[in-house]
Design goal:
The protein is an all-alpha fold and about 350 residues long. The protein contains 15 helices and no strands. Helix content is about 60%, strand content about 0%. α8 packs parallel to α10. The longest helix has 25 residues. The two termini are about 30 Å apart. This is Zn(2)-C6 fungal-type domain-containing protein. GO terms for molecular function: DNA-binding transcription factor activity, RNA polymerase II-specific; zinc ion binding.
Amino acid sequence: MVYTGKPSLGCEECRRAKKKCDQALPSCGRCVRLDKICGGYRDLNELMFRDQSSSVARRASQQSEAGPSTRHPSPKKEATARDFFFNHFVTATHLSFLEKMSLDDHLLKPILACGTLALANRNSDQPAREKARRYYIEAITTINAALRHVRRVREDATLAAVLLLGIFEWLNWEPGGSSQDSWRHHVQGSSQVLQMRGRNQLRSAQGRAMFREVRSSIIHNALTSEIEVPEYVIQWTQSLDDEPIGATIDSLTLLACRMASIRTAFRTGSVTDEELAERTAELEQDLLSWSEDTLSGKPNLSAQSQQQVTTWPRTIDPTEYHINRYIAQPARSVPSITSPT
């Protein structure tokens, strides 16, 4: 799959006129103002992925023909890539829900894509990178089929698979490359799927874990793009009430949402400098209070999580696990709160 640019979210009339659309319902503001019939908005499937699997796969095939064939990797290599992924990316606080899912092609392909690419990056193995890309293309094809299915689009495996595509783009990151745009595209897609699933998914522990995982990417994208966090994400977060570590994460997440709002206001100039300074000062104080209330005198959360790590077969050095990603990701943005850029 090749990223072909951010798809327009506007209505049919605004897209045709290449005008900005406010996406209001039932008709956008521009169509109402011009007394035009609003053609409505494209559905989720159109917003998600533009499947160019055939052309990309053809190029990948041509590249592989120049060297040793890796079109049919051995089961041993696939097992190595799978185990590498679970050993290095799955902990009690990150992607643990994958262990409870059936690893059919729906999930196995993106997992193999990520695991193979991570190994390729570690070993500077270009043929393995090409193999990872083929897994990625196969994953895109499988996911696109699920997105067109009214029931499967709401399944846990579909949301997890879209999330894994974003992880693949992180691993594929190169300065000046297209991975950043592709990652943002996948985040938008996972957000659409998440919202389609509805708030009822939060009733189960697995649903809450998946929501928090996708939410982390949504907020990261909002912070780096200087855009607002979707309102449904904020509302669902406010409705959560479960285990203590979840409440700790959620309270910090809501602060990160406020940070994204401030950065958006700074970029757009939608508020006065005085109001911006006041909101920033309030948020900074709340962040300090969160830090004092949550972290002072508490046992090290990473040490706690280390006792809960997943029980998949371990073949890789356990010191390389990434523990407590939920807290680490919003927290690492805290130092930038007073200086939107």
